[in-house]
Amino acid sequence: METFTVVIKNVYATDKSRSVKIKAEDTWLAHKLANDNYNQLREDVTSIKDSKGTEVYNIEKGFIFEF
Fold first, then answer.
1. How far, in Å, CA of 33 to CA of 31, rounded?
2. What predicted TM-score, i.e. pTM, was given to this entire model?
3. Burial of 48 (0-12, 13-18, 19+ CB in 10 A)
4. Are 8 and 34 spatial neighbours (Cβ–Cβ below 8 Å)?
5. What DSSP character marks residue 65?
6. For residue 11, what are the CA distances in angstroms to 25, 37, 42, 48, 50?
């Protein structure tokens, strides 16, 4: 299990965002579990970082893989 930091941003108020810690096996599961922590009509998951601080998801780029 790894701890991911999920940034959730308000769609209507661009200056409002919050972070949530999610424990999950991988990035995809962290994104799925993040759905339980935000209002899907008013908020978006904008980024996810792993426990090392590496960005693994970005709303503009999608899931980011490093090879």
1. 6
2. 0.87
3. buried
4. yes
5. -
6. 28, 15, 5, 17, 24
